[in-house]
Design goal:
The protein is of the alpha+beta class. Helix content is about 15%, strand content about 35%. The strands form seven sheets. It has a seven-stranded antiparallel β-sheet, covered by helices on one side.
C-alpha cells in the first residue's frame, strides 16, 4: 500500500495521514510503521503498509486481500488502495494470466487513469462543510434563531454551496426538509442517512474517502482566486511535493511548447515539467534546492498577444 497516485502516472504523494484504518478478516495481516497523524514525507520510501492475505488457494487469498483493501481508509496522501482492490478482482490476474506488461495494458480497467471525483464524496463533503460552518457561526448558541433546522419566516430553505474540490470550483445545491440534503449531478444525499463516505477534517476543509479514492473539499473563497491566471494555461504547478533539482528557464526568455522548465524529485522519482504553450516566461517562482508542495506555482508563462 503506497502513497502514490495511480491516476497521475503513479506519482508519489505526501502529507499528513488525517485518517488511517485497515480492513481485516481471517487470514489477513497488516505490517505498518505509521499511524493517524503521522507524516508521509518526500524523503523516504512511500510505503504505508504491507497488506498480506493467505488462503487455501489463490482465489481465497485474493478474496480476503480484496476485502481487506476495500475496508482500508487513508485520507491525506493519495494512495493506490482503489488500484490494488481492482487488481485483486481483475480476471487475468486472478487466473494467473499476467506478465510485467499486464498493468500497462489494463490501466483503464484498473482505474489508473485520470477520473473525476466520486459524486457521493462531493455531496457528503458539502454536508460536512455546511455543518462545520454552522457550528463556527453559531458558536454553540442555544438561540432558536441559530438552530440548524428548517424553521424560517417564509419560503423553502435552500442555498448553493460554493466549494473547491481538489482545487476546482464546484457548486452543490442544498435544501432543508427534515434535515439538510445536498444535490449534485442529479442525485441527492442527506446528512442523516448512512453512507460509505468517510469524512476526515483537515484544517479549513475535509477529505472525503470512498472506494479507496479521496477528494479534498473546502469552501470557495473568491478573495483567494488568482484572477490574473484564472484559466491556468500559463501556470506551471508542481504535480507533487518534492525538491527542485533543476531549473532550465528564467524570466523574460522565450519558450516553446514542450520545452523543459524544471525537474522535481521526490521518493526516488524525478518528474520533468514542460511548457504547455509557446510564449514568454513571465516569472520563475522556485530555485534549485527548494522544497515545493503539490500545486505550488513553479513558473508562469505568457502567450503572445
Amino acid at each position: 500500500l503506497y502513497a502514490e497516485d495511480p491516476e497521475r502516472g503513479f506519482l508519489p504523494s505526501v502529507g499528513t495521514l488525517h485518517a488511517l484504518s485497515f480492513g481485516g478478516g481471517e487470514g489477513v495481516r497488516i505490517d505498518t510503521g505509521v499511524e493517524p497523524g503521522a507524516e508521509v514525507s518526500a524523503f523516504y520510501d512511500p510505503m504505508i503498509a504491507k497488506v498480506i492475505a493467505r488462503g487455501a488457494n489463490r482465489d481465497e487469498a485474493l478474496d480476503r486481500l480484496g476485502k481487506a483493501l476495500s475496508g482500508t481508509v487513508v485520507a491525506g496522501p493519495r494512495t493506490n488502495v482503489a488500484f490494488l482492490t481492482a487488481l485483486t478482482k481483475a480476471e487475468g490476474f486472478r487466473q494467473g494470466h499476467f506478465d510485467t506488461g499486464f498493468i500497462d495494458r489494463n490501466l483503464e480497467a484498473l482505474g489508473a487513469v485520470p477520473r473525476g471525483p466520486e459524486f457521493e464524496a462531493v455531496r457528503q463533503s458539502a454536508l460536512a462543510l455546511l455543518a462545520s460552518e454552522q457550528k463556527r457561526l453559531t458558536g454553540g448558541s442555544l438561540s432558536p434563531w441559530t438552530e440548524p433546522d428548517s424553521f424560517q419566516l417564509g419560503g423553502v430553505r435552500q442555498a448553493t454551496l460554493a466549494m473547491l474540490v481538489d482545487g476546482d470550483r464546484t457548486d452543490v445545491a442544498l435544501h432543508h426538509q427534515n434535515g439538510w440534503a445536498a444535490v449534485y449531478d442529479g442525485a441527492e444525499s442527506r446528512a442523516n442517512r448512512s453512507s460509505d463516505v468517510v469524512i476526515a477534517p483537515a484544517g479549513r476543509g475535509v477529505f472525503a474517502v470512498t472506494g479507496g479514492r479521496q477528494i479534498f473539499a473546502e469552501l470557495f473563497d473568491p478573495l483567494a482566486v488568482d484572477l490574473e491566471h484564472l484559466d491556468g494555461g500559463g501556470v506551471i504547478k508542481a504535480p507533487m511535493h518534492g525538491k527542485v533539482i533543476a531549473v532550465f528557464v528564467e524570466a523574460g526568455q522565450p519558450i516553446a511548447k514542450g520545452q523543459r522548465v524544471a525537474v522535481i524529485e521526490a521518493m526516488k522519482m524525478e518528474h520533468t515539467l514542460t511548457a504547455a504553450l509557446d510564449g514568454t516566461v513571465a516569472a520563475v517562482s522556485v530555485s534549485v534546492g527548494d522544497q515545493v508542495g503539490e500545486g505550488a506555482t513553479v513558473a508562469v508563462l505568457e502567450a503572445p498577444l
